[in-house]
Amino acid sequence: MGAAGLAGLGLAGCGPRKPPFDRLVLATGGVGGVYAKLGAAIAAAARAQWHIPTTVLHTGAAVDNLDLVAAGKADVGFATVDAAMLASDGSPPFHRRLPVAAVAGMYDDLMQLVVRADGPIRTLAGVRGRRVSVGSPGSGTELIVNRLLRIADVPADALQLHRWGAEESARALRSGRLDGFFFSGGVPTPAVAALAGHDPGVRIVPLDSSVPQLQARYGEVYERRTLAHGVYRLPPVQTFGIHNLLFTAADRSAASVAALTRLLFDHRADLVAAHDEARQLTTRSAIETYPLALHPGAEAYYRSTKPYT
């Protein structure tokens, strides 16, 4: 679809137009996380360009966000592709198929098991019997950790288990109330970076050996990744990553979603200023949204920019 097609969606031409949204509600994640920072940047762009009110919801993240958008309580949200796959199938923790569609593939999260440098946890199996946070309720982190524990044959009741986000977990680790915590997110994760610079210090536990079993059981949405030395000034660690999406309701109008997609790229520099992970966003990478299909409005925008060729 070229300029004529975009004109048909109300995205070409010069005259004043009705904003594509009356207001924009974004379902993000925990305060200070990458979802929240990028959501705030998108909200600011919408206010500046469309002169509309916006709301950034701080949530448990992926699972919560899919429920909120499907229920009409948010217009757009962020989710990991493993959670999106379950939502599209109507598999637990979802109770039905959720009618959502992708706006853009955004960036890759890295799975991190963060432990005290002076503590006993050195492997995934080493969390047994320890005080460990598995992520916020309704988060993509919690979904992945449940899968990791099954693979490691560590039942949840074998842990002294907490369900906290990154910031609360980091505070508990530093004060000695936790032995470790899991977090899947963009890097550097601010809460982890703050820990790395203070006593007692932290280690990141390698998790890459779990990838073959994760892929065999849950699909190839998980891929080996390296947490590089420069991220936290710690030795490089082999782990795995999971892709993130920005998504919306499948029945939202093509014109409004095309306008939202254009907003992302018109204000890409603002997203990068909010968090460096937004550098991964290009019109070519954005169409990589498996297992969710692109919304027709987003697809129209990308076809106009030629990422398919």
From TrEMBL:
Q: Which Pfam families match?
A: NMT1_3
TM region positions: none
Q: Which residues form a coiled coil?
A: none
Q: What is this protein called?
A: C4-dicarboxylate ABC transporter substrate-binding protein
| Phylogenetic classification of the source organism | Bacteria, Bacillati, Actinomycetota, Actinomycetes, Micromonosporales
